[in-house]
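3.2 Worked example (two chains)
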Amino acid sequence: MKPSLLCSLVLSVSFSTIVFADGPADNMADKVRPVPPPGIEISARDRAELEAGVQTLGRDLEALQTELKDKPDLLNLVPDARIFHNAVRYALQYGEFYKTNQIEIARKFLAQGTERAAQLRAGTSPWTTATGLVARGYVSRIDGSVQPYGLVVPNSYNVNSPHSFRLDAWFHGRGETLSELDFINGRQQSPGQFTPDNTFVLHLYGRYCNANKFAGEIDLFEALENVQAHYPIDENRLVVRGFSMGGAACWQFAAHYAGLWAAAAPGAGFSETADFLKVFQNETVQPTWYEQKLWHWYDCTDYALNLFNCPTVAYSGEIDRQKQAADMMARALSEEGIELTHLIGPGTAHQYHPETKKELDRRIDSIAAIGRNPVPGKVRFTTWTLRYNKMLWVTVDALGEHWERARVNAQIADDHRVELDTLNVTALTLEMAPGLCPLDTTRKPTVVIDGQELEGAAVGSDRSWTAHFQKAKGLWRSTSVRGAESGLSKRHGLQGPIDDAFMDSFLMVTPTGTPLNGTVGAWTRSEQTHAIGQWRSQFRGEARVKNDTELTDEDIAAHNLILWGDPQSNALIARIADKLPIRWNAQGVHTREAIYPADRYVPVLIYPNPLNPERYVVLNSGFTFREYDYLNNARQIAKLPDWAIVDLTVPVSSRAPGAIANAGFFDEQWQWRSH
């Protein structure tokens, strides 16, 4: 194989399936190939047989839901059967059969789903106590979809196991044909790259092919929660690891959530946006000012300091271009005074070198055997957004300004004194769980923040401790409540930008009224249809959708509302229009800086729902990266900030919903801020 061709290939999870990606053609925004690609044609006879099987199993599962409504332990296992039904249904519905042998796999899945349903009806669930390779599923709070995951259950496990087990989470490589059918089949055929003794291995689907970003990020925590509900997992011996695209995922989980893991083992992948696209994709990257700020969401180099809190062993092949990821992290860590442990497979391209892999195993096993310390004496933490606001016993509750660096250096100085230095932080909480606080229980601790000495809350007799602090006019004070001062403010899970709304439960709301004008009406209808379709293709869920006239108080309480239409066509937009920082009426879109004519411009924005400030409203936007960005995972990042004004006279493209006439971020109180 020619070197130039080799460089245009990306290896999948097992490194045995090769898919073409990332070549020069993928830099042409006006000629974008579809991801996922179209599947093969299947015969009318096979289709009819499989569709009949899907209908039969679907009816069976719906009946089972009703039959088990008073048996919650069994009812909660229905997703373990539904994953097989969905895998076949989706492959049929969306044309995602990619190999002729997948017809037989689909037949097998329908039989497996039927068997599990029958076992649940009989009050049994043998797969929940099985060892070896087990495919399971959970219901995601994001969209109510059933998402699959794979487990390697160690032979040493049984339901009466006297101890908790280490768990390694594995993030798979890029695979554009990695449908649910292909993923589940793989998880029932192969244990994967690493199977440490006495260890559960959790294989994440990650909602397909997004490097575990956005909903793919939440997939780890939802799947892990599901595993912990059924198996005895030691929360202090959780390891994250992955290779290629999965290596990129591992870097981001290690950097953003360093305090959760006993160890991290990223292999290859990418760790930031700009340099990787230049080196690996040969792309000239020309971000807007707000896109460049939003790189701080997933650029792991910006969070390198956090690896102070998580032992990390990186791996690269010596001649792998994706060695660039670890090299960039090594440079960023060096700037923080940390030397990256980077194992390099000699003479090796995009795969693990056998001997170097053994050394990687030795090091990770040694670290995992010791386990995570949940209350270390020192914590080093940096962030750019309250989406990532916690590191071990330190939680940042408010920032001076989003998308500027924030830092906390904290240490337990002695048995009654805690010292912190901060940057760009205006509220924080120190919290230690019962039994873990090393401070003196007979006197209130002294907390020194940026040189200012304060009295902290008392340590509980159960050796738990929680203390809240706020900063105002340059001075810190101890408080009894978490977060910023009273009033609307950005906080964890309610800090924007637009894409953040799709990392929790959301509901798309369809307008039923007459639009302000035909241009706006046609665009909003088209963009809603696009958003629903792209949610399915890229995040493998089925978006909840309701008409504006059908919305209930329960919906407003439970979901982020994605409102489509305008103040005339959508009753919900009309209801909150005068409570948003950007006003919109028949005369135009009104900002503090300009008025944009209503027949040409549409606002998109995210804001705390005026009817329920615990949830978001979003106007006229799905997730903000588009078809061009699907071609390389490093491009799959937020493209719009908290608000934007879209010029509809410029056609929708593979990169944008029209021309962006203006855009920006709201301030820390969710108010208008000029840029």
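3.2.1 Second chain
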Amino acid sequence: MTAQPTDADTPQGIPARDQGIQRHSAMPVRKYRPYEAVGLPDRGWPGRRAEQAPLWCSVDLRDGNQALTDPMDIARKRRMFDLLVDMGFKEIEVGFPTASQDDHAFLRHLVDADAIPDDVVVQVMTPIRGDFIERTVKALEGVPRAVLQIFHPTSEVQRRLVFRKDRRQTTAMALDGAEQALKLQDSIPGTEIYLQYAPESYTQTEPDYALELCNAVLDFWAPRAAHTLRINLPSTVEVFPPQEFADRIEYTHRNLLHRERTILGVHPHNDRGSGVAAAELAVLAGADRVEGTLFGNGERSGNVCLVTLAMNLFSQGVDPMLDLRDIDGIRRIVESCNQLPVHARHPWAGDFVYTSFAGSHQDAIAKGLRAREESGQDVWDVPYLPIDPRDIGRDYQALIRINTQSGKGGIAHLLRTEHGIELPRRLQIDFAAEMQAVCEELGGEITGEQLWEHFVERYVALGTEVAPGLPEAEPLVATPGAAAGAVAGYGLDAVVQGLAVARAGAPLDAVTAALEVVVDSRSYWGVGIADEEGEAVGRAVRAACLRALLDAEPTGR
């Protein structure tokens, strides 16, 4: 029998009777230990705001590629590399030459094809082993500029269980690798090599010891290396919340030796689903550089998504320093190279992320776009749309889609933007109810083309068909009185409730007339579309009267 919760079991001690009762799960929660906070009471990052983009480094070709069930061949890698260059990446990790013959072959392909632009730095990585470092450097022959990253696992559990080394021995390993990399830094004429050290599993390494390792390497390199130095802190596994990551980055940033000549980078993964937040906070905390992949492809739950990070900056008026004006084209190439789909709800780039089905959202978007159009304002300010979709190559046609959740505002918006027709409010209500019934019957979404077909069939076509025994549509003066006289000619005891005449925009470029007649408390609408006003009104009268005579089921009230 499940124990009943006490008030002490409930959030913030709120009495259980005052809230929904949650019961303890049967999951083995005591199997896992909470993280220990680094403790940074005077942290500065919460009060800062991003004002410029970090230095981006794509690791799609290495970290992303090794996570694929079908790793990229040279052709797919080259297509990805060219995309990254076109987008504006200045640092691109191209592989792990000593671990993969394919990575080595691709690096040599880039050199032989002279495919690396002068302003692009390629990155390679190698574990701290003398022969691996030497072979990796040799593979760089002919590359103009490169980052050589040396790394080794440093977490307590790996030191204890995998390598069986204590702190002193692990530090000695780091310094051996640093010395070997330094010796080879200038060994290839014409190739400029930047040195980068990464304590792998930084997030699972004691903060003080991770700092000690980084400072030991920097202190060795600083007096001996001429170039800028680099430290890369990988969230090899994301194991604590993003605010703790930010605290640890700020702790390292404050206490890092030779900070003025060191680029501090982060390499977030997404195991907890907060890789983007961790990266954003890390930059506020002092990181200069972010490694990640396009759309977050990577091991387990993936790497941090660089598209999301860049678009987050863009949406706040900060230049992302990457060209995302054709986000769908970028997505198509990445999907082809990775042979993995980007989710329809992926931030900024998914098929549905600028689409609203809910009626209240559709109405707000339609009104916001209309207000912007009328005011001509430059600053973007439209409900439910954090950016203008046109800035990244989307159009407005997909903003509003119709299903059972949709309302009159969305339907009216689609008719206005796709056909240039403005509907009176009461006609919007009538047609929305009609489409609600259609969607419920079909059990799915209605396309814009289907919406227009239903509109024409219900309100327009009746005015152009020939009905035996009934008069043809005659041109009328566009007044309710004239319309009422014409309605009487159909033998109806009807009241003309309203008449609206307007000029439809593109693509119709015609006059539209919408007429509402009420017969026995039932409302019937007709719409006329013609080049001339009088003809449009005549057609609207005929359509409304035919609906009443045929006793089409009304939906307006």
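3.3 Remarks
The CA atoms of residues 241 and 274 lie 7 Å apart.
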